[in-house]
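REQUEST FORM: STRUCTURE PREDICTION
Request ID: SP-0412
Submitted by: Lab K.M.
Chain count: 1
Length (residues): 264
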Amino acid sequence: MGIMDVRPVDAASDVRPPVGAGGTSLHRFANPGRFLRMSEVVLPWLIVPAVLLTVTGLGWGLFVAPADWQQGDAVRIMFVHVPSAWLASLGYFGLALCSLLSLVWRHPLADLAAVEIGPIGAGFTALCLATGSLWGKPMWGAWWVWDARLTSVLVLLFLYLGHIVLVRAFDDPVRGYRAGAILALVGVVNLPIIKFSVDWWNTLHQPASIGFTGTSMDGSVLWPLLISALGFTLAFASIVVARLRAAVMERRIRGLLMARAGSR
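STATUS: Completed
RESULT:
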């Protein structure tokens, strides 16, 4: 990020490729100006399918899919809860990946991407916990239980919030980025705990209905769930790209102002 801090970020900037193994393959994405051009083309292709798939999946799941024979219509919360849960973990994996790119290869956009992923991932994690509580109340008779799955997802929310606070806690942004990256990588250990908690411990939360070997869900429920999950995923990606574009342009404007002030 040091290059971006001392000069304007534009399409012609000669940002050096990330060093180390894999630097050559990452070089084409290391130039913020190139990222702005590419993302301008990609963003509409993310937003439109995201809206269409999310509306289709939620409409199908909430109004067309059959009610569960045990849970009744309460099961429809699943079409929001499950995609949010998937993206809570997937978003943190993306946050950790950006942190790895930052620490190892010093990728110029990795720190900014991690900063922008954090609030979005925290939002989806909070949505997962909220919808889980709404679903748990009629099923378990309580809004919250200290179940292994629920507790590990709550820890995930705290990791997101900790990263958001930590990257903004230093006067030197680079120190904040490094501290946040270390926290993100340490927190990765929580992801397999979330995934396998229902298998490792005796919990109230039901086991996974979709696995690598198949699914126990009927197609009338599975398809709207998958469509909704894909729509949520594209929406997540759209928000991240839009926020990252705004962050890069903010840096670009700041660099231009600094350059103009220094030339006076």
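NOTES: The two ends are 25 Å apart (CA to CA).
Reviewed by: T.R.
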